[in-house]
Write a structure and sequence with these properties.
The structure holds 2 protein chains of 2 kinds. By secondary structure, chain A is mostly helical. Chain A has helices at 2-19, 39-42, 54-62, 64-78.
């Protein structure tokens, strides 16, 4: 009899847990995340690239750290 | 001269015979349901027309955001596409996968522009706005019995719009560009997404 009384409570609790499923979070993919291969940008023909193109802007955002890293090396090479 | 009553009786009998015949065919199991046996042309046309007309109607009221060209959307949508979509819909440099070979109907190769990946189907539209709405709707709601899941239950509209933004540019991307745009990796300074 007590089992019958608690069954609806347990059922509702289980439903509550089930409905609280989190949306697919991008952070779930960070463990196996691949780094952008920014070295490939050096081989691209930059004269044909439109710097206002969102694709170009997005690539620059991905590789900004790589570009900053190369700037001190260029300065040293010139000196 | 057949009377109206005779005519109606004939119609009813015809309808009953059609229903019984259809039911017998259904339960006979004769129609092949394996994904490796294509539908006949009539069945394929019927199903495709049904799908495209349904999607076009359902997607007609969707409001397209004005910033689909934003680079942030490309980065966010590209990463999600690579993780969740590329297995079926491919990426630059890849022309097939186990899913493209095994699913029926085969998932469209989204690295190809619309007219290249087989848009000679009912409901094909050269109107870019309609195509965008169609893509959003299909990603959000999926397609019954097709292998295309509904991503809406686990992803809000903004994430889906990000994917649509990426799909607009995907056919133009080289493999190198694709890899850079879709990489989720963070550099030590914390840039990434």
């Amino acid at each position: 009899m007590q089992t019958k009384r608690f069954t609806p409570i347990i059922a509702f609790a289980a439903l509550g847990v089930a409905f609280s499923v989190q949306a697919h979070d991008p952070k779930e993919h960070m463990k196996d995340a691949e780094n952008p291969n920014c070295a490939a940008m050096k081989d691209m023909d930059h004269s044909k690239m439109d710097m206002k193109d969102p694709v170009m802007q997005a690539m620059m955002k991905q590789c900004i750290k790589d570009m900053h890293h190369n700037e001190p090396e260029k300065d040293q090479a010139q000196n | 001269m057949p009377t109206l009553t005779t005519y109606i009786k004939s119609l009813v009998i015809t309808a009953v015979i059609a229903l019984v015949g259809g039911g017998l065919f259904l339960y006979s199991g004769l129609y092949p349901m394996g994904a490796d046996v294509p539908h006949n042309r009539l069945t394929y046309w019927l199903l495709e027309t049904l799908r495209e007309r349904s999607v076009a109607r359902a997607a007609s009221d969707i409001k397209v955001p004005g910033d689909l060209n934003a680079s942030e959307r490309l980065l966010a949508g590209g990463a999600d596409y690579n993780d969740m979509c590329a297995g079926c819909h491919l990426k630059p440099g890849k022309s097939e996968s186990d899913f493209t070979l095994g699913l029926y109907p085969a998932p469209p190769n989204l690295t190809l522009a619309g007219d290249e990946h087989g848009h000679e189907h009912a409901g094909a539209t050269e109107n870019e706005d309609e195509a965008i709405k169609r893509q959003f709707w299909i990603i959000k709601h999926g397609i019954k019995a097709s292998g295309m899941p509904a991503w809406g239950p686990g992803h809000d509209d903004e994430r889906i719009w990000n994917m649509v933004a990426f799909l607009k540019r995907l056919p133009e991307l080289s493999p190198d560009q694709y890899q850079i745009l879709t990489a989720r990796g963070k550099d030590p300074e914390g840039h990434g997404h």
